[in-house]
Amino acid sequence: MKTIAEINDKIQQQTAVVWTVEELKAQVAELGVAQVAKTVDVVTTGTFEPAESSGAVLNLGHTDPPIKIRQCWLDGVMAYSGFGAVDLYLGASQMAEMGGAWDTPDPEELREGKGRNVPRERGGGHVIADLIAGKPVKLRAIGQVTDCYPRASVETTITRDTINQFYLFNPRNLYQNFIVGVNGGDRPLYTYLGPLQPRLGNAVYANPGALSPLLNDPDLNLVGIGTRIFLGGGVGYVAWEGTQHFPLQKRLPNHTPIGPAATLALIGDAKQMSDRWVKGCYFRGYGPSLMIGIGVPLPVLNEAVVERCAVQDADLVAPVVDFSIPRRVRPTFGLVSYAQLKSGRITIDGRSVRSAPLSSIFLARQIAQELKQWIEAGEFILTEPVAPIPGDRTFLAQDRLGSQISLE
User: Fold this and answer.
1) Nearest-angstrom CA–CA distance, 251 and 259
2) Whole-angstrom distance, CA of residue 319 vs CA of residue 333
3) DSSP letter assigned to residue 180
4) Which has the closest alpha carbon to 317: 252, 235, 229?
5) What Rg do the C-alpha atoms of the chain give, in angstroms?
6) Tell me, what DSSP letter sits at residue 209?
7) Residues 72, 148, 281, 309: which is the catalytic one?
8) Is 196 helix (H, G, I), strand (E, B) or coil?
9) Distance between CA atoms of 129 and 372, rounded to whole angstroms?
């Protein structure tokens, strides 16, 4: 048995043994669980995938005279302003508005060849990524005139360095598992998994499988509220359970869920983040989103931690869901393993169907490696969760909303 305090002492002395989760899996195959548990102190996991249930909190600082913002657009994307006078929340999936001031290039810029229209494909995720990259963002706001906030409107340019606070608060990130999307219909479908070709032309999955943070801690024994993580290239924390958190999903004997299960809400200072690990993206026919890199360190407290982290892609499954049925509960073609998915082909009703990931396996490995380097250098210590993530949520409303997929 080890404790997080003991592991942190080793991290601060730069003597901790840190492996990526892929390194651990390889060592378990060679040395066994018991020997690996004696050797390693921390295991790093990672993922880089779309996270549309994300957004940024911004405090702009007060203008002179001050304004109480009640409508606001950042590069043509509406931000929510229904709380503090100059506080905003910018959702990653909010689309840029067309026909507004930001769609029309400045005539002088046009003459200089610099003008551009705001494309329809642009959204909140792109604005968040631009701010993280240090780029200027145009702001237009309309205020509610009061005695203490007499200003009626403002147009200006902001950057991450000119505003007071800029942090991500993401209501739902880090799905413990997800679905595989296919299309059994006769026309292309444009979904949050990207284009699905008709007549089972392709299959798309969104989870990195054995690299995924929460599939290596299936019972959430190590990850809880207050866990420090790698978020977008900076330091973040687990803030709460995520929306659509469903830990009571059916599970295999290795405790991993057979479909969407636990989720986490995450928070972190966006001013620390890097545009390498936060990217705006757009799904044709669906809308904008945000690609974000997340890494979670797992302390090796005992042999059970190693046993869970040794899980392989062949031991993890996801349901194949037919998006051509426009219902809240869609039929499935059964379960497939992540080993099958990563082979590039799965079999559905006797047919070979090409499969591809929406998440980046390559970047997930890089995140696990970068977090490993932070810990080895003594630049990142672990935290004790202040409370566990609930494991007994039934969420009857989830069934009414169609978030949970029936696998019966």
Assistant:
1) 8
2) 7
3) E
4) 252
5) 23
6) G
7) 148
8) strand
9) 25
Is 166:234 a contact under the CB 8 Å cutoff? no
Task: Tokens for 207, please give them.
Answer: 């989870």
Q: Are 37 and 64 in contact (CB under 8 A)?
A: no
Residue with tokens 């082909």: 345
The answer to whether residues 24 and 39 touch, using CB atoms and an 8 Å cutoff, is no
Of 215, 175, 245, residue with least CA distance to 311: 215
For 45-82, b/e burial (b = at least 16 CB within 10 A) is bbbbbbbbbbbbbbebeebeebbbbeebbbbbbbbebe
Please identify which residue in the block is written with the tokens 């551009």.
Answer: 116
How far apart CA 380 and CA 385 sit, in angstroms, is 15
User: Token pair for residue 259?
Assistant: 């479909």
Q: Does the pTM of the predicted model rise above 0.85?
A: yes
Residue 96 token pair? 């840029």
User: Is 281 considered catalytic here?
Assistant: no
CA distances from 306 to 22, 42, 300, 392 (A): 12, 10, 7, 24
Amino acid present at 392: D
State the residue for tokens 């599939």: 215
Q: How far apart are CA 252 and CA 167, in angstroms?
A: 37
Q: Residue 289 has which token pair?
A: 């989103």
pLDDT by 10s per residue, the chain, length 408: 899 999 999 999 999 999 999 999 999 999 999 999 999 999 999 999 999 999 999 999 999 999 999 999 999 999 999 999 999 999 999 999 864 444 444 545 544 545 455 456 899 999 999 999 999 999 999 999 999 999 999 999 999 999 999 999 999 999 999 999 999 999 999 999 999 999 999 999 999 999 999 999 999 999 999 999 999 999 999 999 999 999 999 999 999 999 999 999 999 999 999 999 999 999 999 999 999 999 999 999 999 999 999 999 999 999 999 999 998 888 899 999 999 999 999 999 999 999 999 999 999 999 999 999 999 999 999 999 999 999 886 554 444 333 344 333
Which amino acid appears at position 227 of this protein? T
Cα(290)–Cα(55) distance, integer angstroms: 9
